[in-house]
Each structure stands twice: as structure tokens, then as C-alpha cells.
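so ive been stuck on this for like two days lol. basically i have the seq below and the ligand is flavin-adenine dinucleotide, smiles is in there too. i just want the complex predicted, nothing fancy, no docking runs or whatever. if the output looks off dont worry ill sanity check it later, just need somthing to start from for the group meeting slides
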Amino acid sequence: MNAATDSCASGLPGTGRRLFLRQAAGAAALWCAAGEVAGQVAQDLPTIYPSAPGPADTVYLSFGPEEADCVEAMVEHMCPRDELTPGGVDCGLAVFIDRELAGAYGHGDRLYLRGPFRPGLPEDGYQLSMTPAQYFKSGCRALDQNCQRRLGAVFARLDANAKESCLLEISTNRWDETGEFSLGAWFNELFYPLFTQACFSDPVYGGNRDKVFWRLLGYPGLPATYGRDMVTYRGRPHPAAHTPRSMQDFA
Amino acid sequence: MPHCAVVIVGGGLAAGLVARQLARDGVETVVLERGADLGPGAESRLPTQRDELRWAVRGGLMQDAAVETCTHRRSRHELARPMRRLAAFLPGTGVGGAGNHWNGQCFRWTDYNLALRTRFTGRYGPQAIPPDMPIQDWGVSYDELEPYYDLFERLFGIAGQAGNLRGELRPGGNPFEAPRQHEFPQRPLEITEAGRIFAETVAREFGHRPFPSPAANSPDPYVNPDGMRLGSCQYCGHCDRFLCEANAKGSPELLLYPWLRRQKGFTLRPHAHVLGIEHDPTVGRARGVRYLDLTTGEECFQPADVVVLAAFTLTNTRLLLLAGLGRAYDPVSGEGVVGRNFCFQANSGVPLFFRDRWLNPFLAAGASTTVIDEFNDDNFDHTGLGFLGGGYIGVGMSSGRPITARRTPPGTPRWGTAWKRANADWYAHNCAIGAQGSCYPHRENYLELDPDYTDAYGQPLVRLNFDFRENERRVSAFLVEQSLRIARAMGATIIGAAAGRSGQFDTRAYQGSHITGGTIMGGDPATSVVSPRLQHWEAENLFVVGASVFAHNGGHNPTGPVGALALRLGDDLARYLAQPGRLA
Ligand SMILES: Cc1cc2nc3c(=O)[nH]c(=O)nc-3n(C[C@H](O)[C@H](O)[C@H](O)COP(=O)(O)OP(=O)(O)OC[C@H]3O[C@@H](n4cnc5c(N)ncnc54)[C@H](O)[C@@H]3O)c2cc1C
């Protein structure tokens, strides 16, 4: 299903494609999928996660259109719409990342940015002079340039197999060249943590929409006052595990 | 600023305990704390207190690395790099310090730790300690500290099970515990499901004696000797890195500072960043401290009869180095004292997955941990093992927070449907055996001032020269081996990859916040910064307290001894003020 959605999407221009990803899980996806991997879809359909109604058109605060394309394609690939969750964009993962980069974190909050700057080992942690937002965007550019050069298209335009091998390769540093921007470090130290934070943080930050990842885990969320449950549900399933509550539920 | 009797640098846990002892005599005490006074804001109230991203991942309560961090190198032949993001350990800030957002595992250290050189040479012979491992005795005995351990436990409402009551071993407690005069003031916390499996297994299969970690998470409502109250723990899993929403964690912001503020003679100045100690080397006295009032930008001077450094390991060491008080340690000659014996902790872990057991990791308190001490410190015979030290091993369930406390079995892809599936399948069914390993001093592990990097106020950062040395790697490998043996007996469906301290020190990975040494205590001025009474060897009215005075780091969390030493120091200062001079 994921493969079909992605390869269909790759033909569409930037904004059209985002619209597609948000609204088209129904008809367009079916139409697309039918032509390509019909058998698989027919089997998968009944159990596929119902598509979220979709957010009102998202305005990104940090991403430009190419960056949005790249990030949306990444989160859609890494969090495909399946029987467990909606696709990554519908889960709010791109919005989460955008909001983090537009806010204090993206602008270097709690990050020591004084020189001298010295390259270091991975174990030395982040050693560049860029803010996380600048670093993130450099990574999107480097990823697309590398995809273009090695695979003939920017990341968002690759088919699902190519996306998968691209991510496997960058995450194991196989595209890293001495003296060049390290996509491995970028993916593992910046993108991937933001991706998991987008999935599992409180939905108030824009990701984990509808607490979908908390329900997936069986994490009951708030208020987490377990003075009694600690004993009652020791060793037993917790009744609220799949009906979590988040901060907004207490607003 | 008007003169005061005692000025304390740092307004955390140790400072609050020193001030508490002084307040009983009405001593005029000023506490200078760089951070804010934590109020009834987002950090302590529902629902915002339960925000993992804000407090645990972004470190909302921690020292701001953009203002001040430290640098690190693995050997003195390398260039240092700043820890641009604080991650390996997390210094606190704000009134109450890291004592507010700790997990609450509150151990007494085994008695022989205070005379570790004597212990090892006595047990294993004069050659037992390698020449590059400057282990030394602390110059204080457990019996001297026992009443202060006891007081600290009563002030903080510590929950636990006595293992050794006045020399009599008690079932269910830690049999390696040094004799305590009194029971814990509160019953132990509820055990977790994972703790139950662990406890049953180690007792049945190996004859080990598991016990509940002593905890500052209050199982019941509690009133301490000062009339300060704790609520009961909600087992919410938001403890370490968080303020307690239920007012149920023994912490300075609940138990010490609100009480201190009502005492005559006590003054707390938040937003006061201390820059230096003024002293007169000819007479060997400190005159007071210089600080930046962050609310006005003005630099101020606080004169005092007595200066106490209680600003945690990094600042305590840095202020002495900046003032040139005591000779800086030189790793080449092995001489000098300030900065020596810097230690961390050699922790290890093994993840476990049980298909049919509901471990519900979110039902947990900070210290709802079940542990054994059979392999800690020198509780076992090290003959022929090739290392010294050890650690406690246990199931440390303290949170099921979904961003950081998830585990998936080995071989799980990092994204995609299979990744989501593994998270769904195993979240409620995993735990880890963790071991908190000792870290002994090494001649090349030390603190100094960095020549290249400064903080936001233009002062040099502290440079950590640190790596795990052979001894700690072996301790870690040994603890991993024991943990795996237990893991196999626990009947897990899957045992994950063991993580020990085998590679080089990784500044990105959180390894506990227990950094010790730099201003160590001892009986000999040639090898220590402060005396066994925590009195500076060169400036008689200057005292230092906190884990920076530890001569080594043992296999237990540090705050028990920090609390006992701080309370004793408070009593010593009252004596000193009545009759100044070198304290015996
Ligand atoms: C996440 C976490 C979990 C922990 N869990 C445990 C645990 O389970 N068990 C355990 O035993 N220990 C634990 N600890 C350690 C425990 O918090 C410390 O041992 C304890 O707080 C030490 O007390 P202290 O007074 O020395 O330092 P702190 O409580 O940190 O106080 C030091 C204070 O000095 C202030 N300061 C520093 N520099 C300056 C300056 N230049 N001017 C003015 N003020 C300054 C700081 O802002 C801070 O408030 C944990 C620590 C952390 C961070």
C-alpha cells in the first residue's frame, strides 16, 4: 500500500502532492493502488488504519516547499499508512518537526555555540556552529542533491524501494564521504530523534495526532495517578492503555 | 552587601541541608543560587508537568548549556571539545538544584567505602591497588556519619527495608548494609511486576538477597521532623528530570527551602551567579564571594565569616581553580590536588522481553527498583578477577515514558510497519536489568580549566579529562556477565543486546548524573583539598560540600552520603563560628 501511494505521489508537483497525501488516502489512493499492486491492496484494505480527516491545510513555519516535500516524503516512508497508524503526514510528524525547528529548539536553545569549532568523533556529540534549524535544512539539501546524483531524482520522487535503500544507506553512513556533509550523522543525530519525538510526544506539539502512537503502544498517558493501579494492575493489562489522554484532554 | 556569618554558593540539596542545621542556631546565612526560584508553574502542575518532551528530552529544568557547559577530552594529548549539548550527565539549576529532579534512589554507602585503601590493601595485600589508581581513605568513619544518615532519611522521608538494624540482619533488607540505628522512616515502595520476577528468580536460583532500593518517593503521606509534608507517590513515572506534581518526592524545594525561608537569619538570593572567591592568601582566609546579580546585571560582593561551596562538582572545582586556592592537580607528576580523582559511573544494562507478562512500565516511581548488592563494591572476593569494585544489579523500572523508555528486540528495523509493530508488541512487556557500577579514580582522569572555551560571562569552562579505563571496563563486563546470567534464569522470551562500558566515553549518552571528585576530602593536605571536616587546607574559613569531596565513586547513587556530609558540616560550622580554628 505504502509503495503504491508513494509511487503515485511522486508524479505530482509539491503542493498538489501534499494535498494528495492529506486528503487522498481514500479515493485517489485506491485508484492509484488499483493500477499497481491491486492484489496486495485488496487484501490490506479492510484492516488499514482509517484515514484521519486530515488537518486543515497546514501552514509550515520553517519549511519551504522543497524542504516540506523532502520531510513529508521521509515521514510518509518511515511511518506508512498501514493497519497500525495513518501515514506520517496525517500523524502530524512533519508539522511537529517544522514547529520544533521554528521554535526555541531550532534556534539553538540550550546549545553551546561558542568557538573554536573543531570537528570531533561521533562520541563528542554535535560540534558544528549551525543552529538545529540551519543544520536540518542543510541536511535536506544534501539529501536531495545526493539522491539526484546517485539515484536520478530528489528523495520525494524516488519509488518506495529506492527510498528504503537510500534511508538504510545514509543511516549506516554509507553515503558519507570525507570532507563532505555527513548524512549519516544528520539522519541519526538530528532527523531520527525528531522523528521518534514526533511520534511519541504529547500531541500538543503537533505530532502523535489523535494520540495514535500512544494507543499503538498501550501507553495510557495522563493524568498518570497510579497510587492504586500500581497494585491493582501489577502484572495485568491496564484498562486505559488504549484510551490514553493527553494534555489537551485536560484543557 | 551587608556582611553575614555564612555565605553558601549554590542553592541545591547540600546547601539546603547545611543551612537547615545553621538555622536552628539562628546563624545569619545567605544562599546564592544562579537559577530561578521554582514556583507553581508548568513544571510542577498537571497537565504540563507530565510533558516528556519538555522536561526529559529538552531538559527544561537543567543547567543551560548555552550559558555554561564544560569541555571534554579522553586524554591530555587530545584537543578538547565542548559538550555543546549536556547529555552524558545533567547538572541542575534553580533553587533546590538537581535535588529537585532526581529519581530518589537514596542509599547509604557500605561502611568500608570510607576507608577503601585500607580495605583493599588489608584484604588483598599491599600491591592490590594499581599505581595509577589513587584510591584513598576519606578520613571519616561510618559511625561518625550514621546519625546524619539517619537525620537525612527522616528529613526526606526515605522509604525502605532495613537490612542491618544495630548489627542484626533483617530479612528483605540489604544484608550488606552497614548497621543502622533506626528503621527507615517509611515502608518500602510497592514492587513492580518486573521487580517481582527479578526478586523471585535471584532468590530461588542463586540464593541472592534482593531488596527494595531505598527511595525518596514517599509511599504514604509523611511529616518530617521540621513539620514539612510529603504527599503520597502516584507512581506516575515522571520523576527523574521532573519536579514532583504530587509533592511526594523528598526534595529541597519541598522540604528545605520553604522551611528555611521562615527562619530568622536566613536569606536566599536566586539569580545570583557566583563568579569568584575573594581571599587573602597571607592569612589563609576567604573574605567572601563575588557574584553577578542576574536581575540587575550588577556585580556584587558578599562578605562573610565563612564561605561554603555547595554548587556541585563542576562549580566547586572551578571556583577553587579560578581563585588559585590549593595547587591544581598535575597528572604528569601526580602532584597537586584541585581537580584530582574525578570519577563518573560505569553503568551497564541488559534489555529483557517477556511475551506473556504485563510489565506495564508506566506504573513506576523514580526508585521503585529491586536490586541486589552481592556484586557491589567489595561485597565479594576480587581475588584473581583483575579489577576492583562492582555495582548493584537490579530491575530499575522507573518510567514508561514513550519517547525515551521504549525498547524493541534486537533486529527490529528502525522505521516502517515492522518497527511500529515491534513497539506495539513489546512496550508493555519489556524491562531491563541495570547495573550501577563503581568508578575508581585514575591518575589521568581529572578536572582543570579549559584554555580555549568560556561561558556566557567570559569565565573559562571546566575541562574534563576522562575516559573509562581498564578497571571500569572490566567492572562493566563483569556486571554484564552477572546480569546476563540472571536474565537467562528470569525466563525472558528475548534477551536484548547488553550495553556495557566497553568503548570510549560517549558524551551523547546519558550515564547518570553522578560525577564526583575534584575537591576531595582526606587526611593529608598533599592528596586532598579539604580535611575530613570539609575544611579547606589553605583557607581555614572555607568549606566545600557535595560529591566533589568524594575520593572515589562507589557502586551506589551519591546523594545519601552527600546528605549526611552536608548535615554534619552544618553542625561543624556552628561549632566553628563559636570557636574559629582548625576543626579536629
Ligand atoms: C536526572 C537526575 C537524576 C538523579 N537521580 C538520583 C538518584 O536517584 N539518586 C541519587 O542519589 N542521586 C541522584 N541524582 C543526583 C542528585 O541530584 C545530586 O546528588 C544532588 O542533587 C547533589 O546535591 P548538590 O547540592 O551537591 O547539587 P545540586 O542539588 O545540583 O545543587 C547545586 C546548585 O548549585 C547551583 N550553582 C552551580 N554553580 C553556581 C554558581 N556559579 N553560582 C550560583 N549557583 C550555582 C546550581 O544551580 C544548583 O542549584 C540525580 C541527578 C539528576 C540530574
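Residues 3-250 of chain A form one domain. The first helix of chain A runs from residue 2 to 9.
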